[in-house]
């Protein structure tokens, strides 16, 4: 990945807030000519900094009645057990996000389901029956919000002083 400068970061921040911005509007917001802005965006895509553009969907609009986080503890911590569980979990249509974590549990799995019965059936057939799984715990999600802000951990002021 390339070393980002303040303009690259501003491009990412603007696209994070609204990925549907036209190149012309994006260029205006970050103070570049449209052609230069397009080259920068393509560069951020090519080097893997900008990994995609996504449509946010209202879960209720597509029949999702319940969201949950399923904490999973594995029996063994071998690479094959981790990879097997990961591949299985990501193949499930209900799974929105998978987090491999440190601590008492090994994974957090964000799922979308139609109903409490659907959640129970998913847990019983797709998690507790797996040989890799020792324990699961399910927590219901009452609200899910996503920040569009990017944390600014890069020190551009030092770069500007050079």
Features:
alpha+beta; 2 domains; 162 residues; four-stranded antiparallel beta sheet; Arc Repressor Mutant, subunit A; 39% helix; Alpha-Beta Plaits
User: Averaged pLDDT, please?
Assistant: 93
Strand order of the largest sheet: 2-3-1-4
The CATH superfamily of the largest domain turns out to be: Lrp/AsnC effector binding domain/regulation of amino acid metabolism (RAM) domain
CATH topology of the largest domain: Alpha-Beta Plaits
Q: How is the main sheet built?
A: 4 strands, antiparallel
Overall shape: it is elongated
Count of separate structural domains:
2
- Number of H/I helices: 6
Give a brief rundown of this model:
This protein has two domains: 6-55, Orthogonal Bundle (Arc Repressor Mutant, subunit A), CATH 1.10.10.10; 59-141, Alpha-Beta Plaits. With 162 residues, it is α+β, with helices and mostly antiparallel strands. 39% of the residues lie in helices and 19% in strands.
């Amino acid at each position: 990945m390339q070393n980002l400068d303040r303009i690259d970061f501003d491009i990412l921040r603007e696209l994070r807030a609204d990925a549907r911005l036209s190149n012309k509007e994006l260029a205006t917001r970050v103070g570049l000519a449209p052609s230069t802005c397009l080259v920068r965006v393509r560069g951020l895509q090519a080097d893997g900094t900008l990994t995609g553009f996504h449509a946010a969907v209202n879960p209720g609009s597509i029949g999702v009645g319940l969201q949950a986080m399923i904490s999973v503890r594995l029996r063994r911590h071998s690479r094959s057990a981790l990879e097997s569980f990961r591949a299985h979990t990501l193949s499930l249509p209900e799974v929105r996000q998978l987090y491999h974590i440190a601590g008492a549990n090994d994974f957090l799995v964000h799922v979308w389901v139609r109903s409490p019965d659907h959640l129970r059936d998913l847990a019983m057939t797709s998690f507790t029956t797996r040989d890799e799984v020792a324990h699961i715990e399910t927590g219901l999600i009452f609200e899910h919000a996503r920040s569009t802000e990017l944390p600014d951990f890069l020190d551009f002021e030092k770069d500007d002083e050079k």
